[in-house]
Amino acid sequence: MHGNDTHEATADVADRLGSDARVCEVGLRSFGSTRRASGLIACLRVHEDAGLVRDLLATAGEGRILVVDGGGTCRMALLGDRLARIGLANGWAGVVIHGAVRDVELLAALPLAVLAIGTTPRRASLAGKGERDVVLAFGGIELRPGDRLWLDADGVVVSAA
Q1: Which helix H or strand E contains 66, and what residues bound it?
Q2: pTM to 2 decimals?
Q3: What mean pLDDT value characterizes the chain?
Q4: For the stretch 30-66, what's the b/e string if a residue is b when 16 or more beta carbons lie within 10 angstroms of its beta carbon?
Q5: Is the separation of the CB atoms in 10 and 151 below 8 Å?
Q6: What is the spatial distance between Cα 112 and Cα 139, in angstroms, rounded to a whole number?
Q7: Which of 18, 78, 98, 119 has the fewest beta carbons closer than 10 A?
């Protein structure tokens, strides 16, 4: 499955990039029906607020992957089926959340890559508080807007674009 980044396995990417591969060490679970994806990333940092997630997913995704640092908390879900459908309709390839999602049975039917730490039925607020286009740090790596990210069942690999 070489030649097309969308289908390149993270193990192959990590081997190819060697010491330039940044491998996320947080255990992320897959919730969308798309199990393998890659793309340039957009970054958000939020705390129990999905307003910026909604706003960004409503813009042209152009095959990008939204990475959301929710501080690792699973108290409030930062993505559910409604926001995932918005992202899908706008051309986003996936969402990686250092936090929780909800509506997991519905997410599982959507052709979107969705990774998160866990689940909760609680919905986050939509006030829109947080930071956009910032460098994120979780799972032992830095994630910068415009970096390239690959994800599959083995995990997440990031490199400079």
Answers
A1: strand 65-69
A2: 0.95
A3: 95
A4: bbbebebbbbebbbbbbbbbbebbbebbeeebeebbb
A5: yes
A6: 22
A7: 18
